[in-house]
Design a protein that fits this description.
- The complex is a heterodimer.
- Chain A has two domains: about 110 residues, Rna Polymerase Sigma Factor, Chain: A; about 80 residues, Winged helix-like DNA-binding domain superfamily/Winged helix DNA-binding domain (Arc Repressor Mutant, subunit A, Orthogonal Bundle).
- Chain A is built from ten helices and no strands.
- In chain A, helix 1 packs across helix 2 and helix 2 crosses helix 3.
- The longest helix of chain A is centred in the middle third of the chain and has 29 residues.
- The termini of chain A are far apart.
- Chain A is about 75% helix and about 0% strand.
- Chain A is mainly α.
- Chain B has a domain of about 50 residues.
- In chain B, helix 1 crosses helix 3.
- Chain B is elongated and about 135 Å long.
- Classes of the chains: A mainly alpha, B mainly alpha.
């Protein structure tokens, strides 16, 4: 049984968010509405997931898992947030589970003595390696992309997720808090620390082409 | 103590600047940050650095999948939900069978219990007669006895032993 306040909230999200209306159509059995939602969100979802799990193929698999969960939850769907907030809450859970599973797998591999190649190059070597023109040369676009990716990878999982939602989804602190199940103050601290970490890693590259 | 204080001050400053850049400050805090930006060169520099590193995130890869991804997603979802439906039907059918089996077992149990109870109830007179049979068989002899003591005396004499009197005779 919905309370009056919850009913009023549902109605307001339905009014302001067209994607909520689409999801309500999905709930009522409109398959075309689901396809429209997939089309609208697939790239956004994969972009965020890719930067969380560092693997494009895995990100696509996880995005499909998210859409499957959305479809399975259609019967009980109630618009209690913007659709994007609801979708990325599911994505956050799916990505967290995947990262935990990957960490467990990694622990198992390490414990049995399988020492794989380290995929990420150290930041120092990247800064000076290819051209030898460091520290004052202009960083090339591809190299800069690698450095930015590594800077993002150096953040913790929660910082990374908060950064993705803020930068790519332009979510407010309130929506990020809802998506990640945190308080607004926790999101504020998380983003503040994440952005300061990024500044500390990236600024020396921008200024001098070397690590501080 | 002083280092801790400086670190705390730095954290507060960064948090304030990041909230300012994200448009998350209230009007009064916004004005306060802007006043300080106008006066404090280090504060301004930190803001620039935070903004610059944030802008660099534009270099991160953005997904741009083609329609085949959409099609495979829809197909996968349709397949999975069809499997879910079949699984749910199988589970329902299994549960129905289980419930019917349980109901049958309960009915049999109740029948057996009722039958046993009825038999026990009906046989209780016979069991009483059986228990009292030695008394009934000797009722004529007991009738002549005057007391329990007299009967005990007769028992000690071996009157009730099988063939007791015959043996004596």
């Amino acid at each position: 049984m919905l309370t009056k306040a919850a009913e009023s909230r549902s109605t307001s999200y339905e009014t302001v968010d067209p994607d909520v209306r689409l999801m309500l159509e999905v709930r009522d059995g409109n398959a075309a509405a689901f396809e429209e939602l997939v089309l609208r969100y697939q790239n956004r979802l994969i972009t965020v997931l890719q930067n969380l799990v560092h693997n494009r193929h895995r990100a696509e698999e996880l995005a499909q898992e998210v859409f499957l969960r959305v479809f399975r939850a259609r019967a009980s769907y109630r618009p209690e947030a913007r659709f994007a907030t609801w979708l990325f809450t599911i994505a956050h859970n799916v990505a967290s589970n995947a990262l935990r599973a990957a960490a467990r797998q990694h622990e198992v591999n390490v414990s049995v003595g399988q020492s794989g190649e380290v995929s990420a190059k150290p930041m120092d070597s990247m800064a000076v390696a290819p051209s030898g023109l460091m520290p004052v040369r202009q960083l090339e676009k591809g190299e800069l992309a690698d450095i930015v990716r590594q800077a993002i990878d150096s953040l913790g999982e929660r910082q990374r997720m908060a950064v993705m939602l803020s930068r790519f989804e332009h979510m407010s602190y309130q929506d990020i808090a809802k998506t990640m199940g945190l308080s607004i103050q926790a999101v504020k601290s998380l983003l503040s620390r994440a952005r300061d970490n990024l500044r500390q890693i990236l600024e020396p590259y921008v200024q001098e082409g070397t690590r501080p | 103590m002083s280092d801790e204080h400086n670190a705390l001050e730095q954290d507060t400053m960064v948090e304030e600047l990041v909230s300012y850049l994200d448009g998350e400050l209230d009007t009064e805090s916004n004005r306060r940050v802007e006043r300080r930006l106008a006066q404090d060169a280090d504060y301004r520099q930190r803001l620039r650095e935070l903004q610059r590193s944030w802008d660099l995130l534009d270099h991160l890869p953005r997904a741009d999948v083609d329609h085949s991804f959409t099609e495979s997603t829809i197909a996968m979802v349709a397949l999975q939900t069809s499997d879910d439906h079949q699984h749910a039907q199988r589970t329902d059918s299994r549960q129905r069978r289980l419930m019917m089996g349980s109901a049958l077992a309960c009915a049999i149990l109740v029948f057996v219990a009722t039958f046993s109870a009825t038999r026990w109830w009906a046989g209780r007179q016979d069991r009483k007669l059986l228990r009292d049979l030695p008394v009934i068989e000797n009722i004529d002899q007991y009738r002549y006895a005057e007391s329990i003591e007299f009967l005990r005396l007769l028992e000690r004499e071996g009157l009730f032993v099988e063939g007791g009197l015959d043996h004596e005779l």
